[in-house]
Amino acid sequence: MRPGRAPRGRRWHDRRFHGRADYRLPIGRLVAFLCAATVVGAVSGSVAALSDHDSLAFPGPRRAPAALDARVALPPTPSAGASVAHVSLVIAAAPAETIAPPVQEARWRPPPAARRGAPMPGRAEVAIVIDDLGLNAERTDRVISIDAPLTLAFLPYGRLVRPLAHQAREAGHEIILHMPMEPLGPENPGPNALYVSQSSHELVERLEWALAQFDGMVGVNNHMGSRLTEDPAAMRTVMGVLAGRPLYFLDSRTSQRSLAYASAQAAHVPAVRRDVFLDHEISADFVDRQLAEMEMVARRTGTAIAIGHPHDVTIEKLTAWLATAEARGFTVVPASRILAIRSGRADLIAALGARLPSSLE
């Protein structure tokens, strides 16, 4: 090591300041910095009292880098063997600006129509889904005319499905695809239904055909499907198609062993499950009991999803129930709203392109 050089490894660094010059002074030029040592001595009382890594610390707020940083390194002399004294001196050429603490970036919030991820305080929210629409225009018109934000599920093979679905959306209802799927029994689910015996290619082809039959859908649920929804391979194929689209899946739970909800979650498809069937027995008493069951679920959990069909008795009983629902603490909402609440995803409604009634805007 040459005389006049500070020992290696003694580089000074202060994390609070950046951009400083680091000066290493040879013994021959020490006289030029005696004035600096004098200033330091006045501040600290004694230069000799400083230890190897001491530096002058000036109280006050954090400030911008100063114009000059001088360092004096006194190497040991062979004769005296004196210890090294390090002096760090900050000389500001002009008053330094105080650096404001970093401003925390405002947390992103979804647009107003999407901030629907929590239930309304003090109220139970109910989604009512009406299946099997689009085949009978008169019954479909009756359902569309109901003054409440229902979720209407249209079969893809109805001759008038496209204009009827458009009419329903314009009336303020949420519309979804009611996809025909293979049942366990001998019932016929309809044209272009999905069957376990079909290849993955045919399942994809039929589902994509159905998805193209009308516009404005935000979700899909199963028509029948007790056999198909139990098959893991078929469900993986179905959810693989839906995963690339802004759609949710409503598991109608036509089988207690349905894999639809779990398969949707595995494929990252937003999914929700039906709680109550309103009219799998077509009688006034039964529909009344099921509406009461829907109320009980909604009061207990805060939300409920019920599925019915466009039967005369269902339409009549549902219309009567809706007349007093608000006064009794129930709010009717689209199924996507229940999905957003149950999943805790406040952004979901906007992501799906769904709409809410004006009372929830």
Describe the structure.
- Strands 3, 4, 5, 6, 7, 8, 9, 10 and 11 form a nine-stranded parallel sheet that branches.
- The protein is an alpha/beta fold.
- It has helices at residues 34-44, 137-144, 161-170, 200-211, 232-242, 260-266, 284-301, 312-325, 335-343, 348-352, and strands at 68-73, 86-91, 124-133, 151-154, 174-181, 219-224, 248-251, 271-273, 276-277, 303-308, 330-332.
- Helix 4 (200-211) crosses helix 5 (232-242) and helix 7 packs across helix 8.
Structural descriptors:
single chain; 361 residues; alpha/beta; TIM Barrel; 2 domains; 11 strands; 29% helix; disordered N terminus
Q: Spans with pLDDT under 50 lasting ≥5 residues? A: 1-25, 39-116
Number of strands: 11
The 3D shape can be described as globular
Discrete helix count: 10
What's the average pLDDT? Answer: 77
Helices and strands in order:
Blueprint: H1 34-44, E1 68-73, E2 86-91, E3 124-133, H2 137-144, E4 151-154, H3 161-170, E5 174-181, H4 200-211, E6 219-224, H5 232-242, E7 248-251, H6 260-266, E8 271-273, E9 276-277, H7 284-301, E10 303-308, H8 312-325, E11 330-332, H9 335-343, H10 348-352
Parallel strand pairs: 3-4, 3-10, 3-11, 4-5, 5-6, 6-7, 7-8, 9-10
Antiparallel strand pairs: 1-2
Helix pairs in contact: 4-5, 7-8
